[in-house]
Design a protein that fits this description.
It is built from 11 helices and 7 strands. The chain is an alpha/beta fold. Helix 1 runs antiparallel to helix 2, helix 2 packs antiparallel against helix 3 and helix 5 runs parallel beside helix 10.
């Protein structure tokens, strides 16, 4: 039997940023290193415990940061490593005509800085926005929030739904708390850290990975299958959203 070429499979890839593309959670380090460290971790802890939503946590974090040394922060961002396989993964997706989207619950100004440093500006990025009240003071803005959801600031689930179709096989790649919702709507999940633990706890099928080279190898295996199956629970969840309009 003739095997399908990988570019004949309609993959759509959605990738987290903090801790996934960047190996450091830059958003967390912004407030811990350049603001009130104790206050930052107290706010982040309440968010991780589900006591406050992402929108409230971002507002409180920006309030706790106040005026900060943005040039020192940019130097810090410029020093941080990218996943060692990500450039190869970008090339792999391009060569196989696979659409990729970065979906982040972080802030655009440091994501854009990092992606520009790596010459990756052409990849579509959906994130929260930092509004500069003055040169060194920021306020968060949420252009991609879902009004019916108080949990997420940037609704990654909606980006999955809006950028894929029934004949697509959706792939989610992430590591953290903000990835647990959108991953449930995808057919194939690549997980590490807290996303991995979430999938294990909730018996959601996933592929563990250490870096993007692992993901390339697994996608090659998926492309060699005679028949790919969508994840049934993901199909049901997507259908629920479609029916609600």
């Amino acid at each position: 039997m003739i095997k399908r070429k990988l570019n004949e499979i309609n993959f759509k890839v959605f990738v987290d940023f903090d801790g996934t593309i960047s190996l450091t959670d830059i958003g967390e380090e912004l407030f811990a290193r350049f603001g009130d460290r104790e206050a930052a971790y107290e706010i982040i802890g309440r968010w991780l415990d589900g006591k406050i939503g992402s929108i409230q946590s971002w507002r409180e974090l920006c309030d706790s940061l106040g005026e900060f040394d943005i040039e020192a922060f940019y130097k810090f961002v410029d020093s941080l490593p990218i996943d060692p396989g990500f450039h190869d993964f970008v090339k792999y997706c391009s060569e196989n005509q696979i659409d990729m989207f970065v979906v982040s619950d972080g802030l655009d100004f440091y994501i854009n800085r990092f992606m520009a440093r790596e010459n990756l500006q052409e990849i579509p990025v959906y994130s929260n926005r930092a509004v500069f009240l003055k040169e060194n003071v920021i306020m968060p803005d949420f252009p991609h929030r879902d009004e019916e959801c108080d949990t997420c600031a940037n609704c990654k689930r909606n980006h999955v739904i809006n950028n894929s179709h029934d004949d697509d096989f959706t792939i989610y790649i992430g590591d953290g708390n903000s990835d647990t919702c959108p991953a449930q709507y995808c057919d194939f999940i690549f997980a590490k850290n807290s996303l991995l633990k979430f999938c294990e706890k909730n018996r959601i099928s996933f592929f563990p990975y250490k870096n993007f080279h692992d993901i390339i190898a697994r996608m090659e295996q998926l492309g060699e299958k005679k028949r790919l199956r969508k994840r049934h629970q993901a199909e049901l969840k997507r259908r629920e959203v479609y029916m609600r309009g």
